[in-house]
């Protein structure tokens, strides 16, 4: 019987949530259930890994037996470990022989300490590229002729305190734009920074001397992840502003509030790491995007206003990932 069918390994954290702040301790137990008579292992260890992931678009060429060449495009996935900490759990004494485990349940405690200045996990959608993500991985290293057992569990790392921003983050921010029909959009955000659970408050002024019919004004809060090699945008919220549908008046001034969910959002930040003397820069930022849609061709207005998202009160409900979270530590040690 193969290892995957007869043996299983689990990680149990000592808390019900997978949220940790920089500087905290990550601890729990690793449990190995073995049903084989003699399970030979070279090493059993657990790692805590911080990963910067990004993609690049590549091409490759192939030539068939007739000499015809074809070129195809594909996506290359890159994973750069910028933080790795490892703990050996069970290793043969001389490092060369193998440890033999009989049937039963084996447990080992583990403990890691997170650095204070780790960059925060990318949320929401932590598995999409580019990203910063963290996970623990337990490895049961077996002889070369046997498959190695590996299992990952995600962690969400967030800053203990607010990341330093410019002093202007609490000041109003002004914006404006105009189309070729002299429709002018102006306004200001009451503050250029928010925390999850607050509302984006802004005032809009429309000058519409030609009484262009405005279909609607759409507002979106967008999270942008940016690297030289890769870029991604996620819509955090999107809505059509009330009271501005098929509007044809000559002017309008109105205040709006966009409530932002209290669910955890990665704060605005920048991170730099390197591998083989090559630097990698990761920027995560937010924009409020306003789109004025009008009747006619090439007449809409689009404007982008930077918004700083700061660290706020944590909603620490566990977050699902490709790997399900383990049961709680207490449920294991209590059995």
Automatic annotation (TrEMBL):
Entry's family note: Belongs to the arrestin family.
Gene Ontology CC terms, in alphabetical order: cytoplasm
A biological process from GO: protein transport
Organism: Adineta ricciae
Pfam families reported in the protein's UniProt record: Arrestin_C, Arrestin_N
Residue intervals of the Arrestin C-terminal-like domain: 180-309
Record Gene3D superfamilies: 2.60.40.640
Protein name (record): Arrestin-like N-terminal domain-containing protein
Domain Arrestin-like N-terminal: 9-162
Highest taxon, organism lineage: Eukaryota
PANTHER family membership: ARRESTIN DOMAIN CONTAINING PROTEIN (PTHR11188), FI21816P1 (PTHR11188:SF17)
């Amino acid at each position: 019987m193969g290892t995957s069918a007869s043996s299983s390994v689990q990680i149990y954290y000592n808390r019900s949530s997978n949220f940790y702040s920089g500087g905290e301790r990550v601890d729990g137990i690793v449990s190995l259930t073995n049903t084989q008579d003699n399970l030979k292992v070279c090493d059993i260890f657990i790692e805590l890994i911080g990963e910067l992931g990004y993609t690049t678009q590549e091409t490759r060429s192939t030539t068939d037996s007739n000499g015809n060449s074809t070129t195809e495009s594909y996506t290359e996935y890159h994973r750069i470990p910028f933080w790795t900490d490892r703990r050996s759990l069970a290793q043969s004494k001389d490092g060369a022989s193998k440890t033999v485990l009989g049937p039963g349940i084996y447990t080992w405690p583990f403990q890691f300490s997170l650095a204070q200045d780790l960059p925060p996990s990318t949320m929401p959608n932590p598995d999409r590229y580019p990203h910063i993500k963290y996970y623990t991985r337990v490895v049961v290293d077996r002889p070369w002729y046997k498959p190695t057992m590996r299992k990952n569990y995600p962690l969400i790392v967030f800053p203990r305190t607010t990341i330093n921003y410019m002093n202007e983050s609490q000041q109003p921010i002004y914006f404006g734009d105009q189309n070729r029909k002299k429709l002018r959009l102006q306004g200001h955000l009451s503050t250029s920074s928010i925390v999850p659970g607050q509302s984006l408050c802004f005032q809009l002024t429309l000058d519409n001397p030609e009484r262009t019919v405005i279909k609607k004004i759409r507002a979106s809060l967008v999270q942008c992840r940016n690297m030289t090699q890769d870029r991604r945008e996620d819509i955090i919220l999107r809505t059509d502003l009330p009271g501005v549908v098929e509007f044809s008046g000559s002017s309008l001034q109105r205040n709006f509030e966009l409530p932002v969910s209290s669910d955890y959002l990665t704060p605005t930040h920048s991170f730099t790491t390197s591998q083989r003397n090559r630097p990698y820069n990761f920027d995560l930022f937010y924009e409020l995007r306003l789109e004025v849609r009008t009747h006619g061709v090439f007449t809409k207005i689009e404007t982008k206003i930077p918004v700083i998202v700061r660290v706020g009160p944590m909603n620490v409900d566990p977050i699902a990932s490709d790997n399900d979270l383990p049961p709680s530590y207490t449920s294991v040690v209590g059995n």
